[in-house]
């Protein structure tokens, strides 16, 4: 008897339910992956486009600040609230930060040097000894106390102090001079670098002195505010960047460096180029997204192409397997309710403002184009030159009600879709990563758990069935062999 062939033949029929479950599980996994792809596109459109790229107040501004006269002294950028007033700017003082600088530990001191090695320059101690490594050095700045052992290197000292937000200072080290500098993070007269007054409060700074370790071997420069005169009015600021008449001005240098004041002049011009480019980019991003979503819900579904079993794959060529699998994966999200809903909502946000958008050169395509936006650049440019605020109000919403703008409305609808997909498929609602793991407590995650449990039970059942069949056929073969032996013996005796 060919027991293996007989058992295999009988088990094939018994394995049919298992194959069916594995196919259903595979379809569920493929569907989750399709949802993750959709969620990734939605996340990218919402966070990277609607919020980050198009959500800024100034992205649709049509004002451009032009600096003439002393073009080296200032930089100017017009914002959305630029009022077009010309300005003459004279800069008499730049804002600086309060800074404490040591005399220097000498050249040739890399930032990897330890504090013990700096100490050895004063007392000729062995920097590798346990005592030198254990010796402590202290710094008190802005009421924050730092203590370091001799084994600590300079770069660690710097990062430790800089990472302390309460100290509010930035420490730098010049390897060419060995000077350590401590600067306030806040510029102007508000910035401070207040050292401790105790006897041992500044032993760390003493290491970075050339001559000796007395506490007066460092210099302090107090920060000052910037002073600029704009159209005859003096402006005193803690920083070098501030906004006047809707224009952000950055002071770069004094205007009277040669002894004679050479002021800078700022004029505001209308320039629709950047705003038009932003609208073009939005239209392109929107059209790309809805095309991708429409392709999912319109994709043909081949119901006769189920996922292949291992046995089926074993009898097929690799190219045929690929072709079959592509058809089996097609149409998994056909007519999906979540995708159809978000598409409908986004189109509604456009339709609500279609009259105003049409006046600005933005319209929808034909019915067959499924809500695609069409842009007339010349019409948009002309409309923005005439009334730039109108498009800003439509897309971003007025300053008093930004949530009424198309961008905010779309962002809300897209987020709702991302959440629904996450609840159903277990996708990460805060990432566009296509390799992110799925949440098990989603609808599909629970369904997969159920499949895994049923498959495990079925495998145990089939294993028991196979064992039983082998035992039965083996016993049958043994009995038949015994009967054959008895028959042979009987015939032999008769003859």
UniProtKB/TrEMBL annotation:
Domain spans labelled Flagellar hook-associated protein 2 C-terminal: 225-485
UniProt keywords, alphabetically: Bacterial flagellum, Coiled coil, Secreted
Principal location: secreted
Localization, UniProt: Secreted; Bacterial flagellum
Pfam family, one: FliD_N
Domain Flagellar hook-associated protein 2 N-terminal: residue ranges: 1-97
A Gene Ontology biological process term: bacterial-type flagellum-dependent cell motility
Cellular component GO terms, alphabetical: bacterial-type flagellum filament cap; bacterial-type flagellum hook; extracellular region
Function recorded in the entry: Required for morphogenesis and for the elongation of the flagellar filament by facilitating polymerization of the flagellin monomers at the tip of growing filament. Forms a capping structure, which prevents flagellin subunits (transported through the central channel of the flagellum) from leaking out without polymerization at the distal end.
Family per record: Belongs to the FliD family.
Subunit composition and interactions: Homopentamer.
Record's protein name: Flagellar hook-associated protein 2
Protein source organism: Paenibacillus borealis
Lineage summary: Bacteria, Bacillati, Bacillota, Bacilli, Bacillales
